[in-house]
């Protein structure tokens, strides 16, 4: 008699399954372990970043006093004899860029978000969403090019006192770069306020602006603040725009029209040059990177805290 | 008495008018901001197109970098970017999807899982230049890869990994539980269900999010600078341990030269870069629209 697979009795089928079960069981047990190790990679990445920064920074502080790092008002590492490592000018440079970027991006970003969520027709929204997505997807090297070859010349035509490398042009362009972040997260927060709340205010006779400013905006405030903080965090960590358009002169002066250096652009300057491995300058990029990491990490944690702590539940 | 009433209602009408005017003014300010944002994008694109388009030619694509702008080309950078992405895409896709499956299907909802999840979202906020420092220390120095395709590819893979993970998690979460239950009901094991039911259903979502992440890796410059990728390269890599250059590095190099001819070359390079990104994004949007309707 010819037995094909189809004609196996149920019992035989079960037996066959048990026979195959050895292999099945093993892979069922091994696969979660393999996947766990994959998940561990991202934890190891964080660990790698933190440990790298800490260890190399410790070596740096073996050569340069930590007091000097925090108190000296000068960042002058390329001197053979009298190198000074005071982080303040680099932090100030970063703050200048971040301040200009926020001053530019926050009002525009919030206006666009309010327009899209409260006023715009479905069609306008359909046109604007891809535009914002494209703006968000433009690589920062392209924004840097735009800052140096377009925004700076335009600004210098308007205000001749502005130098070729300055804080204003890269500041504005960093602002352009973070507008999509602020718009999309704020708009999410605004449109997640339920429709009945909006209808209630309108039915009381409030105009759209009164509804938006006195009801919807306060209700969405946590999300909006979080979006701004995340935008600021991106501005602090932005590298290419400032490297290209802000210059490379660490400056402790409180003006915006001349060349400056940020924490990020210092790292770029050192790594494009030929500071050899093992020199004090080489280790200094880790100390600067660590400072930068602390800044952006605390911003991100703050954003998470705001959106959790002050969320309005509906 | 009647007179007072009339005044009151006239006042109210006056107030209503001013409130409505205010509403209109605010609305037009917001509208102006929206138009302004679109104009920025248009100006940026038009600027780059008019500046770079005359420099686009077959020679530009075929030539290596040169000190003379009229002979300079982008061949090494384009091929180098392809080499780098051939490391980034498999590394980030396998690690990202694996992590997402683990977190969504296997991990218990405990403190460790929450910690891994928080860790991933914080990793997404780390500046790319810091990832460069990680790559420089671990891949370039510790593992001894030097400024090779492999070192750059791994660094970029880690940089985009959080985005791939989150996109994959969302896609996996969107798989209807009925499908999984039906699969278990037919006697499939957990892994069989994941591999033959959950993943096929989630792949369009995973692909859309991952393509967007990979397009970020193509345009990212800072980590490449930090790990020491050279810009003046007159050869093509022959394996992943070779030195190479990438599109954004070449653009950066041309941008930082003072001569206007090199700026025009940079614009031409940017057109190529944006072209690649537009193609990738269109593919992502196409996949999203193709599979969203089911």
Automatic annotation (TrEMBL), chain A:
InterPro entries: MetI-like, MetI-like_sf, Phosphate_PstC
CDD domains: TM_PBP2
TM regions (residue ranges): 33-61, 97-119, 131-152, 164-185, 215-236, 281-303
GO molecular function, one term: phosphate transmembrane transporter activity
Family of the protein in this entry: Belongs to the binding-protein-dependent transport system permease family. CysTW subfamily.
Entry keywords, A to Z: Cell membrane, Membrane, Phosphate transport, Transmembrane, Transmembrane helix, Transport
Role of this protein: Part of the binding-protein-dependent transport system for phosphate; probably responsible for the translocation of the substrate across the membrane.
Taxonomic lineage from the root: Bacteria, Bacillati, Bacillota, Bacilli, Bacillales
Parts forming coiled coils: none
Membrane topology (UniProt): Multi-pass membrane protein
Any single GO BP term: phosphate ion transport
Pfam families from the UniProt entry: BPD_transp_1
Cited SUPFAM superfamilies: MetI-like
Keyword Cell cycle: no
GO cellular component, one term: plasma membrane
Protein name: Phosphate transport system permease protein
Residue intervals of the ABC transmembrane type-1 domain: 91-303
Locations listed in the record: Cell membrane; Membrane
TrEMBL record, chain B:
Cellular component annotations (GO), alphabetically ordered: plasma membrane
Biological process terms in GO annotation: phosphate ion transmembrane transport
Domain (ABC transmembrane type-1): residue spans on this chain: 78-283
Chief location bin: membrane
Subcellular location: Cell membrane
Signal peptide extent: none
Record keywords: Cell membrane, Membrane, Transmembrane, Transmembrane helix, Transport
An example molecular function term from Gene Ontology annotations: phosphate transmembrane transporter activity
Membrane topology, record value: Multi-pass membrane protein
Gene3D superfamilies per the UniProt record, alphabetical: MetI-like
Keyword match rRNA-binding: no
Domain of life: Bacteria
Pfam families named in the record: BPD_transp_1
Transmembrane segments: 29-49, 76-103, 123-143, 149-172, 193-215, 262-287
Keyword Cell membrane part of the UniProt annotation: yes
NCBIfam families registered for this protein in UniProt: 3a0107s02c
Cross-referenced PANTHER family: PHOSPHATE TRANSPORT SYSTEM PERMEASE PROTEIN PSTA, PHOSPHATE TRANSPORT SYSTEM PERMEASE PROTEIN PSTA-RELATED
Entry similarity comment: Belongs to the binding-protein-dependent transport system permease family. CysTW subfamily.
Protein name: Phosphate transport system permease protein PstA
Native source organism of the sequence: Domibacillus antri
